[in-house]
Amino acid sequence: MNLNRVFYGALGLAGAVAMGAGLQSAGGPGLAFGFCAYLILGGAAVCIWERSIVRSAFSLMATFLGVAGLFVLLGSDFLAMAQILIYVGGILALLLFGVMLSPPDNEERSLARVGAATVLVGAGVAFVAAQVAGGVAGWVMADTLPAEDSHARAIGLAFLDPKQYVVAFELAAYLLTVALVAAVYIARRRRVDYEPLPASAGGQD
Amino acid sequence: MEHHLTALDWKLLLAVPAIPLAAFVVQIFFGRRLPRGGDWLPTAGMFVVMCITVRMLFVALGAAGHGPFFHESVNEGGPVFEWFYQSAEKAPSLNLVAGVLYDGLGAAMLAVVGVVSFFVHLFSMGYMKGDRRYHIFFANISLFTFAMLGLVLSDNLLFLFIFWELMGLMSYLLIGHFSHDPDSPRIKQAAAACKKAFLTTRVGDTCLLFGMAIFYYNFRTFQFSEMWRLGAEAVAANGGEYPAWMTVAGLFVFGGTMGKSAQFPLHIWLPDAMEGPTPVSAMIHAATMVAAGVFLLGRTFPLMSPDVLQFVTVVGSVTALFAATIGCTVNDIKGVLAYSTISQLGFMVAAIGTAGAAVGTVGIGLVAGLFHMVTHAFFKACLFLSAGSVIHGCHHEQDMRKMGGLRKKMPLTFAAMLICTLAIAGTPLFSGFYSKDKIIASAWEAVMGHGGWVGPFALICLALAAMLTTFYMFRLIFMTFFGKPKDQHIHDHAHESPAPMVVSLLALATLGLFGGKMWAMDGDVLGEHTWFESLVWHVDHETGETEQFLYPGIDLSQMNIASAAEARAHDPEHTAHIGHEAHTRALIVSLGVLLLGVLGAALMYLKRLIDPARVTAKFGRFYTTVANKYYVDEVVDATLIRGTMSLSRTQKWIDENIVDGLVLLMGRIHKALGFVGAWIDKHIVDGLVNLMASVIQTTGSVVRLLQTGRIQQYVSFAVAGGILLAAFHILS
Amino acid sequence: MGLGAYVGVSAALFALGLICIISRRNILYVLFGVEMVMNAAMINFAAFNHFNGGGLEGRVFVVFLIILAAAESAIALAIVLNVFHLMKTVKPSEADFLRE
Lengths: 205, 732, 100
Known about the structure:
The structure holds three protein chains of three kinds. By secondary structure, chain A is an all-alpha fold. Chain A has helices at residues 3-49, 53-73, 77-101, 111-135, 152-160, 166-186. Chain A is flat, with a radius of gyration of 22 Å. The N and C termini of chain A lie far apart (48 Å). In chain A, 27% of the residues are buried. A two-stranded antiparallel ribbon of chain B has the order 1-4. Chain B has a two-stranded antiparallel sheet with strand order 2-3. Chain B has a two-stranded antiparallel sheet with strand order 5-6. The longest helix of chain B has 73 residues, at 632-704. Chain B is elongated, with a radius of gyration of 37 Å. Chain C is built from three helices and no strands. Chain C has a single domain (3-88), classed as Helix Hairpins, CATH 1.10.287. The radius of gyration of chain C is 17 Å and the shape is elongated. The model of chain C has no long low-confidence stretch (mean pLDDT 85). Chain C is mostly helical. Chain C starts with a helix and ends in a 13-residue tail after the last helix. The chains are: A mainly alpha, B mainly alpha, C mainly alpha.
């Protein structure tokens, strides 16, 4: 039995279920929501499941896109755009560079580990989430998207308004600058190659 | 006519014991530094004492002719010593006022002690020459004399006892004189002898103390005159019979006499005491210390019930005969004299005992025993000193079997010894005759009166003892001074003793000759009016009435059942007749045993007609028993000595194992507890601490496992923790 | 769709992100997981923002989150490359320098 086939089969099934459920409960928006949720969770699952790191990276792209879609559904187009631009265009590219520069390592996926982690984390998070969701179950959103202008302008104004978030914005910019410089510095090419450290050299550091 | 002692008389009487005491103190501290070791000081002191005592004796003789002579310093304003004196209201029973008692008996005894002691001092100046502890010897005999003089002068029983004990100590020191001399060949025997003397007399002393306690409990006083009075009252209150407790107390007091005066079975110390120097033997064992027991009997006579006196008679008679038999087998010259002393003491004691069963208001035995004490002092002291002279002349040879034919070499010693041997044998006109004759007469009176079986028993024993006395004394004379010399070497070197010794011998021999009666100058051949008797009683020979001076105010007849009954049953004339009769029979017996004894000794040892060895063989086993002193010492050793030793060994075992064992056990328990505590501390307390440390260490090493350095695990822990927190928060 | 659905999705993504972090033997998967977690947070913020009547605060914060994620991933990648140089391996379990 090919485990991969089982997995993907289950995944496809889950997608169908999700979208159907969404359609059922809330009509069009519901379908959209189901689809986006499917993208997110499916991408994440594939990322975990896949043996090849490149494929994992690309499935992550699906996740990001799904998140962008959710942003749209939550009435913030600016956030969706920002998400796609930065995450998919920037961070994902960065990760792919990392993948490229790292030595190849077709590691053995330990299903036992994954299973154990799933059980542990899944149980815990599910429990907590259920509580939270139960608490907020009554919150129902309006079916219609808000009829307002793109809020990009409002966000931009907020960023630059001395009474609002200008300081934070400036600091964020500063942070980015520092991060860039730092990254460059940390990853600079060194004249002399290091001695390869022995594995598990814990020592008495 | 009442006689009073002047203040000077009392002072002189006090000086009598004080002088030897002072001499002792000086000798002890300064004796070594004085010239000649200071022997002249005590001797001169004793000369003064002798003069005083003889003078006082003449005072007493002068007064006694006119009436009773009895003086107590407490009653006559003389010197007193208030000891424990409380006022009459507070505690009258604790009062003890001690004074001086000077009566006829005391006068005689004082003079005897003074004279004998002086001559012994004089003799010692010659005999003890060259002794290593010469000055100590003189100090000791001075102190001893002090004790004896004090004893005679005491007017109460407690002080008598104090001096009695002091004499015991001095006899220990004097007998053991040579035990302190490392060069002496008989140092061990001397040490054993003085110990034996002290311990044996101690037995007697303890009995005496019991008796004193019983008397004090009932009378609450120790004063002699008071005790006699109270005793008479007690007898009268008891219907003329002696109360049982008085009999018991009297027996205990006689126990003291048995110890000090060497009665059977406490006689065992006296032969061994010959280890002491001869002057010591002369003074202590002839004249003074052993006489103290008889003197005690004299002082306490009114308190003795007839039962006690019967016991006294038996003991005395047995002692006399017993010792006399042993004396026949002894070959050591001093040993013969030692057993002779024991035998003569038995005579004295038996005599006093027979006074309890005598006819008449006062038994003659009391006076006879006390008189014999006086005459015995003279001739026995002389005999011992003569023996010392012989020993000295033969260069310290004491075995008679090695002597012989010494009368030409030591004529003066021979003369003295012969005189005193005649005296002890009871030859008429010599001093011993008068006293011994009265003793036999007293025994006859007991036989003719109501003496029961005791009278004849005493008579037979005493008569036999008298014969044996004559026999062994003449045996001594013949073996030592007559015949061919057994050891030529000793005979060649024998010589007469130096002047101080010979003078003493002759002086005492003279007293042994005339001490009883001055050769019957007044025609009184039978000795019915001796100087001693005039001091102690007055006898009317026509009426048989006697008046005694020893115990003023006490009617002895009331206390003497036999005598009272006799006095009431018979008329006084009959009593006087019995007295005469007894005297006559006694005279026949005395002369008879004297002749038999001399004849026997002469045949065996002088003329060699009877071979002593064949006689010995004839007696066979009996002879061996007697020669071994009836094995008394062995019996005492096997029973008492070993018994006491094993008892003390048992005590020692108990002390070492049980008592010390308990202590050790305590110690061990504590130690064990300590160990337990230590174990607890080490394992439990430290264990807890170590346990905590190891728990922490284990926890740490376990927790350290979490620090893998693997970030993924860190993340998972963080997640788990976070979920737990959230869950906790939600659920609570 | 109710807020509950969005929170559910967010939680699920969060869980999947954690699983990715702790259960893969490649350092880069840790970075993937971190991004997933960040996105889950962003979903949450946006959802709550939307269901509380709109407003800017939530959205602004999401923007900040995005900025943060970018900065963080840049530096993380630099660090990871350094580690690769040192150890010549990508296994995070080998990099246990923090171990005692």
